[in-house]
Amino acid sequence: MAEDEVLAILKKSRVFSGMSDADASVLYGAGSVREIRSGSALLTTGDAPDGFYVVLSGRFHVLSAEHGSAIADIGPHEPVGEMGLVTLEPRGADVVAVETSQVWHLPGRGFELLLQRGDPLAVSILLGVSKDLCRRFREAILDGAAMVPGLMRSPEGRALVESQGWEVL
What we know:
alpha+beta; Jelly Rolls
């Protein structure tokens, strides 16, 4: 995949949206493009984090370590493995290519170097990752709330949702 195509996809990612062309070029140079064959693991439960990824093309399933079933589907423009960038904890799930896919990989070491230099790009990455994790957390809470009978009919449940500015579906 050509550099300009990768840059366009990175800038569409929730983690890097709003990034300048100059910052996107620096970021691109700090990472690399990888191809993952269908059925191959991108991440494996228990592995040490090695940075994070943005899906450029193809699809991945996130597999529950407990149940072995798909708990999420990840496609183009979406980040993968970003929790490990923040927490430095071992991978919590398997991520397997459903079809031959391409990803852009930012190694953890590359990110650490940006942080050590005090590069504003590192702050931008952390902010983008944090915003995306918060969005996903809110979605998970709402999904869980929808599964609790009567929660949205109770004054407490409604107050919680309204206080967060969440949309009631």
